[in-house]
Design brief:
β2 and β3 form a beta hairpin. The protein starts with a helix and ends with a strand. The chain is built from 3 helices and 8 strands, in the order αβββααβββββ. Strands 1, 2, 3, 4, 5 and 6 form a 6-stranded mixed sheet that branches. The chain has a two-stranded antiparallel ribbon with strand order 7-8. With about 200 residues, the chain is an alpha+beta fold. About 25% of the residues are buried. The chain is rod-shaped, with a radius of gyration of 32 Å. The protein folds into 2 domains: about 140 residues, Phage minor tail protein U (Alpha-Beta Plaits, 2-Layer Sandwich), CATH 3.30.70.1700; about 55 residues, no CATH class.
């Protein structure tokens, strides 16, 4: 079964395809080898999560936040400087933000897009052309429940009743079904030690 965080990451990839300057150069992992022909490009990956409990009762249930990280890669053209590459990064960031925040498939699969942030771009001129990189994170919040796995079947229900309102004021009964609950005689209320009712259900027959 695919984790919901992975489903969200895949939806982010689909939301970005051909919606930005990167066109179809949207790569689904962080270690994708990016060359000049792959830029401008986006690397989309996840893996970080946090969760806050929805309460102390019942099975574990959380408000989970899954983070999807996007790495931006932009290479300038001949004669362009870092400012020119920065302008492309800014445009690409705006397009990425719009594509994710307005995508219906993503919005239907999360409770809330809780946060996004974008780091300062970095530039390198180690080659003839300037290369700009940037990283952005989106936080997607959704409910997550962990119900216990039932490994044993319920075959029989055998319920007995020794009631408080129906009682023998003076009777003493041997081997009562609920010895710790019996009111000593003489009594003005039950339980008195009698098995006054039974429900037996066999689910195997």
């Amino acid at each position: 079964m695919t984790a919901h965080s992975e489903t969200i990451r895949q939806l982010v990839v689909q939301a970005l395809l051909n919606r930005t300057l990167a066109e179809d150069r949207v790569f689904p992992r962080r270690d994708w080898p990016v060359t000049s022909k792959d830029m401008p490009g986006l690397l989309v990956y996840g893996g970080r999560e946090s969760g806050v409990s929805r309460g102390p009762l019942g099975f574990p249930a959380f408000h989970t936040v899954a983070f999807v990280t996007i790495d931006f890669r932009v290479e300038g053209k001949d004669g362009q400087d870092a400012d020119d590459v920065g302008d492309v990064l800014s445009t690409l960031w705006w397009q990425v933000k719009a594509a994710i925040l307005t995508n219906d498939a993503i919005l239907r699969n999360v409770e809330q897009i809780a946060e996004f942030r974008c780091d300062e771009p970095e530039f390198s001129s180690a080659t003839k052309r300037h290369v700009g990189t940037m990283q952005a994170d989106f936080a997607f919040r959704y409910p997550e429940d962990f119900e216990p796995v039932i490994t044993e079947s319920l075959d029989v229900v055998d319920a007995h009743a020794d009631m408080a309102g129906t009682f023998d004021p003076t009777g003493v009964y041997v081997d009562p079904a609920f010895p710790d609950a019996v009111t000593p005689a003489p009594r003005t209320s039950g339980p008195d030690g009698r098995d006054e009712g039974q429900v037996y259900v066999d689910f195997t027959s």
